[in-house]
């Protein structure tokens, strides 16, 4: 522990940079997954056939081991953070799509009919009624995706990426526990903070929806 604290004290600026890089990769991957996953989840909620195709395709991506997927992406896109972000995007898709789909299918049909009764168009119903009611489910998907992405991002250095994984792998290769912990502990804290923060946000949206 003493060596770990000493290492952190001497290298805290570098660790902050690596933490920022780690967060940036995860947020970029999640933003892409949100932008693509919510529309796909919305399409899936429109009918069983579309749901089967979309959810099965997302499941196939999730089945790939993270290391194997990143290596395949490295072959296609080369080394670097961009390839890592694409991998995080693909790994985050399933939770976002599935929870958007579940949230929209759980909307009370009576509420939808009431919206139609007052003259709302399908787009107005979706934006003003259905998606707000499905928001707690969507946030659950983002929370799951965020925790997964933070963990997967730790192997980014193996394909030329940055982030806290650099300290983890440097610690392993140099047999230096202080460096390993300096990467692993902040990554674990990030996962816990993401889980806690998004859980709180989900609860607040559910409470607001009941008010």
Automatic annotation (TrEMBL):
InterPro entries: ABC_transp_perm/SBD, MetI-like, MetI-like_sf
Keyword list, A-Z: Membrane, Transmembrane, Transmembrane helix, Transport
Family listed: Belongs to the binding-protein-dependent transport system permease family.
Protein name listed in UniProt: ABC transporter permease
Transmembrane segments: 20-45, 66-94, 142-160, 180-198
Domain ABC transmembrane type-1: 19-202
GO CC aspect terms: plasma membrane
Record keyword Transmembrane present: yes
Domain of life from the UniProt record: Bacteria
